Amino acid sequence: MTDLDAFLASFDGEPGYLDWAAFGPLSPAVRAEAVADTELLGSGRRSSIDLVDAHVRDARELIATLIGTDAAQVVLQPSTSYGLMQAIYGLAGGLLLGRGEFPSLTVAATRAAEALGSVRLQWLEPAGGFVTPEAVREGLTDDTRAVAVSLVDFRTGYRADLGAIRDVIGDRLLIVDAIQGFGTVDADYTAADVVCANGYKWLRAGRGTGFAWYGERALERIAPVLSGYRGTDEGLPLDAVPPPAASAQAFTVSGADTLAAARLSTALAETAAVGVGAIEQELAARTGDVMYFADRYDVPVLTPREPERRGGIVALAPAPQDAAPLAASLANHGLTVTVRSGLVRVSPHVGTGADTLRLFGDALAAFSAARVW
Ligand SMILES: Cc1ncc(COP(=O)(O)O)c(C=O)c1O
Q1: Are residue 347 and residue 287 in the same domain, yes or no?
Q2: 301 & 175 share domain
Q3: Which of 25, 85, 170, 328 lies in the 20 to 30 Å Cα band around 164?
Q4: pTM higher than 0.90 for the full model?
Q5: What is the DSSP letter of 303?
Q6: Number of folded domains in the chain?
Q7: Ligand 1 pocket test: which of 85, 99, 101, 179 has the largest number of ligand atoms within 8 Å of its C-beta?
Q8: pLDDT digits over 65-100, tens only?
């Protein structure tokens, strides 16, 4: 069995699940690790506690490997949103971002601007909601100091071109919310300055498994304004308050959740063993299958067709009168998707089997047969 075959076989959930962009059912290895480490933490032995603690370092090293950077520049976070807040509150000057971004970005940016006054928001409202390099170029002003974007848009499934955005923005900061692509999209993260994500969707690691990477430029320019007592180079700073660490460690508040780190490092190791490139290729075939059925039954697809401009999300945009019947047919066939604002978000993973895709085809066929033109 190859690593990829073993990885595919590890998707042991029930058929019908097409909602990986919302939540990723935990992998068997992650579940087993969580049980084992929970037992270790119950033992009352220092060596057992240290064993679980070691997962923090393991996770940071694996993230660094997947990004192509150094573990010193990686810090664990409770979630993507916490990671993004650390970066955004430390900015000064214009911050360019799409109005349609997931609220982790838009809310943090708005609150930071209101609270600190040092961040000025520059909203982008690109046609179709795609934050393309051209849209970014048009939105830039002399005041723009940073651009924040999702690697894969949670709504449309559009995958940003980080390298091309870098070319457009010069040496301004690029902050990336990568939760909808980390581990499944072979992105050039080093084109960015900050990358934040969480492992509870595509990595199958459960909640609490957030992390952030800070490149050199980010460490120079972003002030660690939300830095807590674990954000220094001194283990436990008592009686005197030292400056924040010079590394990414500055962008943290408290101690890491070591059980979450155990789940995350296990999930990252599974991903690293297969390789993100192989996962991306396999996932493109699954999303291609979803698009095939959508085309066959005349359901409009919002997500770009080019594999390099999408990740695991396929957004269907039925006519307004079709949205409810389509959602009902999917539910009646036992399929789990996200229906929001008239869009049906279908998100398979590489382990989504032929049985699930068959159900999806049947659901669309039933919807189509009952449709009134
Ligand atoms: C693009 C995007 N960013 C952030 C989040 C929230 O991430 P977290 O729960 O890790 O803060 C989501 C959740 O769906 C998302 O889709």
Answers
A1: yes
A2: no
A3: 85
A4: yes
A5: S
A6: 2
A7: 179
A8: 999 999 999 999 999 999 999 999 999 999 999 999
